[in-house]
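Two folds, back to back.
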Amino acid sequence: MKKKVMSMFLAGTMLASMLAGCGNKDEGGDQGSQSQTAADGSTELSIWVHETDSSEEGKLYGALVEEFNEKYAGTYHATISQIARSGDAGGYDDKVNAAISNGGLPDVYTVDGVTVAQYADAGAIVPLDEYFTKEELSDYNPSIIQQGTYDGKLYTLGAMDSSVGIFYNKDMFEAASITPATEDDPWTLEELTEAAKKLTTDDCYGITMSLDAKDETLIYFFLPLVQSQGGNVVSDDGLIAQGYLNGEKTVNLLNWIKDMTDQGYASATPAENSFELGQAAMALTGSWEPGNLAKFDINWGLMPMAKYDDSSEAVSACGSWTFAISGNCADEKKEGAAELVRFMTSADAGARMYAANAMPPSRQSAFEGIEAFDQELSVFKYQLANTAQARPVSVNYAIISNQFATAVQNVLTGMDVKEALDQAVEQYNFQTDTQ
């Protein structure tokens, strides 16, 4: 099974969610990671990132590398390559996969949080544990440590995180006499359903939930409602789907989704910006939403992710891009590579990342001084510290995610819930050679 999964991974089937200071800007050409020393005696380091300097996030990566070079002048010098995540051959994922095959990885590179297990299993990244103290790691959101840990070892750290909540129209809530949930007292699905029913009219859905998505969005948004019941979509070792992806707790979730659309409280094919335009009273969506809301005239608020029922725990989504030391990094360069990871994921970097792309910081201390997280976005700060659970750290994650999304779409187009999930497990087993 492992051989087949790795073959698929290196073929590029894994899931797709500047200025170089004193160095040179590179558009992603192969960079060996042999030990190199500059004329001033500094150790040369290479780093790849998945954003070009056409975005604010990409500009920040460049600025951080420039600052790293200034701070460590004469000791370390990093050269950055910025590679767009295009769907065409030559995009970031393609270049990384090719470099894994031919040994051309840089010393440090960005890794999507959901791919940590695949990279670690392939030897494409190495553990970070020995380079960071427990005190340092305690400042990172617990979910950042969780998503970066595979087989008991920490492989990645990030500067940013993410979260999902329920955005709501304050005016509609007031008109319907609905009191919103609070960060430490989330609604149950029954309470969410009742509110959606009350808010649904002929020209307004109670809630929009991106149910037309056919990608990572669906498992990212809805997995917490399986985890809230104490379940998951794959076994703890990340290998077995039978009894998990088609288990009782996943069946419960898809039955609720189906009921919400059957009753007309949510649309299976929601219109774009339906919440922002007043065509839905609530929206289940992520921490990037405030940037979109700023373009519309809407009086909005934010509630936490719902939990399954009164006996369930509150669970919320999380996870984002991270930094790792590559398996090609020479031993004598790893300490410098770790220092670069530390610099790129500092509290300062996290706070500046929020300013660049509106994503929550990965470190608790980085929230200090960001006013929004003490006011309208306090729910996200609370969730990342208290209820966030990472998606499965599994070498088969891409297949799990794809089959979950397929099952949801099959249910929304008329297939029986259990049949759809059983079919998803059959496809998962076929693609992974799981018996």
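---
second:
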Amino acid sequence: MSKQSKHLKAVAEKFDRKTLYSVEEAVKILKDSAKARKFDETIDIAMNLGIDPKHADQQVRGMVSLPHGTGATVRVAVFARDAKADEAKASGADIVGAEDLAEKIKGGEIDFDRCIATPDMMPVVGTLGQILGPKGLMPNPKLGTVTPDVKKAVEDAKGGAIEFRAEKTGIIHAGVGKASFDEVKIVENVKAFIETIQKARPSGAKGTYINKVTLSSTMGPGIKIDMAALDEDAKAKAA
């Protein structure tokens, strides 16, 4: 048995898949597990919500800026003209354009992870709905990606702001950091994400809103989070 296999076996013996763990305990286990990898794993969160996204009043979607970013490199494209285009470039946008950018996208060139547009560019961007929409890249004013303040939008995207959206099954997935992050930073990112989802509870959600929360890493185990303990911590801090 290799050193890596022995390490992973030892990690697996330290936790029970049926047990609920605090965020701190889960992060510690995942970081320990990641020591055997030769690359920097992503720490992922999956939240099973008691909603049916098919109903308009039960959709959960938005943006969240994690306190310590995601550790991922985000390529940003901006639809803007003139001074706003210059502002986008100065803020760190990777791709800036107008009709020329739209033509590249129609031709299959989609070399970006986030798309931002100034309001006046929406007639151009609107023609790309069938291409960008299915990929989750369509600019949306509710998400702050259709805005005259391209500087803030680009900086937020580069700084670790991530979009969340419940899938048809009511599950939300997101990367909330890297295994190389300090434990405290990962914990704070996880708690910030969960708090944002809690606040995003839709008006149509009935009964239990958050059914299950699981933390995992790219190749690590899935660890169930004790939401009751998390709620108690939040109440204690608020008191």
